[in-house]
Amino acid sequence: MTTTEYALRTDGLGKRYRRTWALEDCSLAVPTGRVTALVGPNGAGKSTLLRLIVGLLAPTTGTVEVLGESPATNTPQVLSRVGFLAQDHPLYKHFTVADLLRYGRSCNVRFDQGLAERRLARLDIPLDRKAGALSGGQQSQVALALALAKRPDLLVLDEPMAALDPVARLEFLQALMGAVAADGITVVFSSHVVPELERVCDHLVVLDHSRVALAGDIDALLDEHRLLVGPRTTADLDRAGTVVEATHSDRHTTLLVRDGGGVTAPGWQADPIGLEELVLAYLRRPARQEPAHPEVSA
Amino acid sequence: MTWVIWRQHRAEVLALGLLVAAIGAFLLAVGLSMRSLFPDGAAHCAGVLTDACSTAIRRLNDEHGYASKMLSLFNLVPFLIGAFLGAPLVARELETGTWQFAWTQAVPRMRWLAVKLAALGTVSAALAVALSSSITWFRQPLDVLDGRFSADAFDLEGLVPAGYALFAFAAATAAGTLLRRSLPAFAVALGAFAALRVFVAGWLRPNFQAPRTITEPVAATDVDLDPGGPRGMTADRLDWTLVSGYADSSGRHLSVVEAVQMDSAARRAGMELSAYMHERGVQKWVQYHPADRFWAFQLMETAIFAGLAAALLGVVVWRIKRRVH
Question: Which chain B residues are Cβ-neighbours of A93 within 8 angstroms?
Fold first, then answer.
């Protein structure tokens, strides 16, 4: 096989800062061509995972493989195939937009200057303006244009829309999706806002407390999960499948189950679940009990 | 990559280049007027007391006496050169978050660092050499008259300013990498620079090589004898005298107080100090470095600063390799 089936694979990936683990035991496989949303609350380890993917960090444990190579090796080959847009889209504020493009051109072999210029021209972003004088939305568009001009096979974006107003968010998403659709790039982006993801993503990774809470293709995940609603009960509920979450009102019990065989008991009704509800249900689960974890610093 | 470095650091490079050029132009102007005092060259007047030379040297002291103070101010310039280029090198990327942009382009991080350190380190050293060249030229009349070992000569001439600038560059870069802020890095580098300069100039430099010692009996006819310590004992007036004094006939060094007491005793006895000392077998001695050790000392001091600079840059490489956040 000449093409890599998975654009991104991690196995037992972990990163520790001094004594705290920012990411633990993370095993993922993102097929080539997917647009993946990485969701989780602040501090869940999203930025750490993304930095491990682009090679800005080296893992403490486990492995990352991006397009078949290890990003921590920092070779020009893997660096040139991965585009990265860091949180708050940091740019050299005293550089003009043209300077930034020249920066990209001089540090990348396959930098597509024309592509970036056309993209910026469409957005009416003047090339002779200093980056610091642009609006936040324009800065994020410049950063995106720089990342896309690398002609990456994998594009990684860390909270790309967090600082943008709703109009700029929409424009950014349109620009991103236009590029992805045109080139079939694999995209991983993190966000803590779920609703805007549903239209653009087909793969989901939920991170919570430094661990993967849920991962998979969104359609499959929605298929596998059902909301079961029935009369209030606190009896053994596992027969209906793996219970992700159980909530009880005065008269009813609602179960979110995975891999359930459907309604088994009379009086119960099975409903499909929306993406946002699904993510929130996983994020509401209590932090996994720490098992007797062999402490590193004995 | 070259263009990126130029674009990022051109403001500092241009400002420092202007500073060095302005100092050079100023020294050229005053240096020419200094030289006009010695139509036959200052070397002609070294140790020679013709009328013309006496007049020239008096005018030199009157009209150019400020040179020494002015030159000691320039001691800061090698630091400014190195620290202005080094402090922001890594720290500014960390402060503004742009490290994430810089290190995800197709230039690997270690290569990015190597090219930046090499380019800006070379610029630091080159600017410092330009500074020291203009100061060396300016001081040439003073050097041939007074020697090159005084603090306003040795520290600003030859190679050592390049070593100082490299050390300042490396210290500021390392502090910026560890502190992640340019301004505190600049301050820390200044402290390290000043401490090391004082330590090396005050304690190490006199001992780069074993000083030579001359001991000889005080002659009865030595009428210019100074109770504070004998002068001009070495063969070459450009030698670096570390310390001089008197010793009794057994070789025990006399304190200055003892020498002054002898001077009063001689006066009470109505004698010249030299005759008084001569009668008692007092000897005069001097510890000094010969003038021709100048370049050996320059090389040793440059090696110390450049060596420490290399060690600090090693810390930067190690830190960025392991990095980050």
Answer: 96
pLDDT in tens, B29-47: 999 989 888 888 888 887 7
The enclosing domain of A156 has a CATH number of 3.40.50.300
* List of residues 6+ apart from A20 with CB closer than 8 A: none
Do residues A214 and A253 lie in contact, with contact meaning Cβ atoms separated by under 8 Å?
no
B7 to chain A: which residues are within 8 Å by CB?
Answer: 95, 99, 102-103
Question: Is A29 a member of any domain?
Answer: yes
Residue A164, C-beta contacts closer than 8 angstroms, at least 6 positions apart:
A136, A137, A140, A172
Q: Count up the domains in chain A and report the number.
A: 2
Q: Which of A58, A84, A87 sits opposite B104 (nearest CB)?
A: A84
Residue B185: which domain range? 2-208+293-322
Secondary structure letter of residue A260 according to DSSP: -
A74 with B325: Cβ contact below 8 A: no
Contacts of B4 in chain A (CB under 8 A): 103, 106-107
Q: Give the chain B residue nearest A18 (alpha carbons).
A: B325
A268 lies in some domain: yes
Contact A55 B104 (CB under 8 A): yes
> Is A248 a member of any domain?
yes
Q: What percent of chain A has pLDDT over 70?
A: 91
Q: What's the total number of domains in chain B?
A: 2
Residues A50 and A197 in one domain: yes
Predicted local distance difference test score (pLDDT) of residue A262: 61
**Over 80: is that where the pLDDT of B307 sits?**
yes
Q: Are residues A121 and A72 in the same domain?
A: yes
Q: What letter represents residue A197's amino acid?
A: L
| Residue A272 within a domain | yes
Mapped onto helix, strand or coil, the DSSP state of residue B103 is coil
CB contact under 8 A, B106 and A80: yes
User: What residue type is assigned to position A158 of the chain?
Assistant: D
Query: Tell me, what's the ipTM?
Result: 0.89
Domain assignment of residue A122, given as a range: 6-208
Contacts of B324 in chain A (CB under 8 A): 56-57
The pair of structure tokens assigned to B189 is: 């580098």
